[in-house]
Design brief:
Elements lengths: L9 E4 H6 L1 H20 L12 H16 L3 E8 L2 E10 L8 E9 L8 H15 L4 E7 L3 H9 L3 E12 L2 E11 L5
Parallel strand pairs: 4-5
Antiparallel strand pairs: 1-2, 2-3, 3-4, 5-7, 6-7
Length: 187
């Protein structure tokens, strides 16, 4: 008999993920499955076609290397030891932009939508950015991604720009929306 209570996702950072050989060992494959499924369904994650397994593994290797150098944060979400979401930010590399980071991706498996996974991942990444001394956390989203834009606004992000019809997916055009969370404005 179940109590009807939805379990909270376990949000792990890169160190916790690496400390669990089972989860760490299948992370790239699980992440690829989520990303490929979402992109196949039209999700606005930066790809028009689903990324290859090698492309996702290369991306994750880059993020993990940046985490180890103190230039990124990676968070993963698990329900019943099954990866249901991931997200990361990367510090800007230009010397004049080093105090800032870009929230690059938040991806939540379709079956986990509506369960607070995206909010939990984003909140953890915001906390990581604050702890790392990031002054401004930026992101961009496709204009039709209203759920994500609502989530970001609810967590304190403000829109600072928009490029109309900038994103081309086949015959469709979407705005590119730029948002920021300025920690310098918070006490």
């Amino acid at each position: 008999m179940t109590s009807g209570v939805t379990p909270e996702p376990a949000i792990l950072d890169a160190v916790e993920l690496a400390a669990d050989p089972e989860l760490g060992g299948r992370f790239a494959e699980s992440a690829h499955q989520i990303l490929a499924e979402l992109v196949s369904g039209g999700a606005a994650l930066g790809w028009v076609e689903p990324p290859s397994q090698d492309e996702v593994a290369e991306l994750l290797d880059h993020v993990v290397s940046a985490v180890q150098a103190g230039d990124a944060a990676l968070r993963t979400a698990y329900l019943d030891r099954r990866l249901v979401g991931l997200g990361y930010w990367l510090r800007y590399v230009r010397p004049t932009h080093r105090p800032h980071a870009d929230l690059e991706k938040i991806a939540v498996a379709g079956a986990a939508h509506g369960r607070g996974v995206g909010r939990a991942l984003t909140a953890a990444l915001i906390a990581d950015a604050r702890e790392a001394g990031i002054e401004v956390l930026t992101l961009d989203a496709r204009g039709d991604n209203t759920n994500a834009l609502h989530l970001y606004r609810s967590l304190g992000f403000t829109e600072y720009g928009r490029l109309p019809d900038f994103v081309a997916v086949g015959e469709h055009r979407y705005d590119k929306v730029f948002c920021m969370l300025d920690f310098r404005q918070q006490s």
